[in-house]
Amino acid sequence: MPIPILLIAPEMAADPVAAALRRDLAGEAEIELATTRRAGLACLRRSEYVLVLIEDFLATSDPEAVDLLYQAAGATPVLEIHCALSSAARIVHQVRSALLRRGRDRAQAAVAVAARLQSELGAALSAILLESELALREATPLQQPKLRNVVEMASTLRDRLRA
After folding, report:
1. What is the three-class DSSP state of 30?
2. Is 163's pLDDT higher than 80?
3. In DSSP terms, which residues pair with 6 in a beta bridge?
4. How confident is the model at residue 113 (pLDDT cuts 50, 70, 90)?
5. Fewest CB atoms within 10 A around its CB: which of 22, 30, 35, 160?
6. Could you tell me the pTM of the whole model?
7. HEC readout, 54-113
8. Does residue 138 sit in helix, strand or coil?
9. Which CATH architecture has domain 3-86?
C-alpha cells in the first residue's frame, strides 16, 4: 500500500517536485498536491498522511496560517522545502530520509512496546505463580491437583516468556 504524502506548494513550484516524487517513489508513495495553505488544511482534515511537505515561501509568508497546518498535521512529520532553491532530486532525497527515519522510529517503538509488555506479563505471571504456590501449600488434598496444574501452567508461561 503506497505511503500517503501531502505536498503543499504553489502549482508552478510544486509540479516538478510532485512529478519527481511520483517518478522516484513510484509504488512506495502516493503524492497529493495542495496548491494553497487552505487546500492543504482541508487535505489534512480529510485524510491521514505519513509526511507533509510545505513550500518554504508558504511557511514564511503567514506564520499563523502555517501554525494551523502544523496543528492539523498532529504527529505527522512536516518538512519545509524550498522548491526554487532545491532541486527535485534533493527534495526526493529529503523525503526518502524522512521515510527511513519514520521506519526506524516505528521499529524502535515496536521493540520498546514489546519489551514493556514482556516485562509486565512477566511480573504478572511471577505474582500468579507465587500466589498459586502459596495456595498449594495450604490446599486441601482435593484442591491440590487443580492448584498444581495452575502452578505448572504459570511456570510454563513464565519460562516461555523468558525465552
Report:
1. strand
2. no
3. 32, 52
4. very high
5. 160
6. 0.71
7. EEHHHHHHCHHHHHHHHHHHCCCCEEEECCCCCCHHHHHHHHHHHHHHHHHHHHHHHHHH
8. helix
9. 3-Layer(aba) Sandwich (3.40)
